[in-house]
Structures are given as C-alpha cells and as structure tokens.
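Hi F.,

I've been meaning to write this up properly since the lab meeting, where we talked about keeping a consistent format for the predictions we share between groups. The idea is simple: the sequence comes first, exactly as it goes in, then the structure tokens exactly as they come out, then a line or two of notes. No screenshots and no reformatting. I'm using this chain as the first example so we have something concrete to point to.
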Amino acid sequence: MVDVSSLDPAIAERLKRDAQGLVTAVIQDAESRDVLMVGWMDDEALHRTLTTGRGTFWSRSRQTYWVKGETSGNTQAVREVRLDCDGDTLLVLVDQTGPACHTGARTCFDADRLL
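Output, unedited:
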C-alpha cells in the first residue's frame, strides 16, 4: 500500500479502517441493484476510484493495486460512491461490463445460496 495518499483529507478522516488500513467496498450494479462483488480499498485505492471512475482495489493476496477489468475487459464504470454511517464500509454503484466475478459468473454471489 502507498504510505502517502492523495485522498481528500475530509474523506480520509471519516474512514474507519481495519488493522491493515483497509475498508470493505461493496460493489453494486447501479441499475439492477444486484450486489456484484466485495473488494478492499485503502485511501489510495479509494482516491484512484474517485478520480478515474474505475473500480480500483487493494489485493490482500498479491499486495498490490488492481483495476477491475484491466486484464479481463470486464470493467466497472463508477457512478457513485457512498460511505456508510459508521465509516467502515463503502458502497460503490457501477455500470458493469461483462461478468463481475473472476469465475465468469455475473456476480460473486450467484453460486451458493445458504437460505
């Protein structure tokens, strides 16, 4: 993760991050309202998302930033970003092109319904 971020300080002070400096980002289709996926953002990933309009995340396994669709072509055009009342979760409303899940499913929540 980047030590110094360009994120607006007024936004940064509202975020409640976990021990790794991350905030959960729930990605939702702007039209259908389907939950597409969940990702992780630090201040820099959020800054990049807000300034580029493309879903940008921190990969906990690879320890690097990634832009949704950069290699697959299954992109997310960000319409809106909201912060929840506790400041610990972001809701990102997107126009999704192609499947959102790395498995090829439309959403990461298509496979296993528990109830």
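Notes:
The radius of gyration is 14 Å.
The beta strands are 23-29, 35-41, 56-59, 64-67, 76-83, 89-96.

If this format works for you, I'll send the rest the same way.

G.
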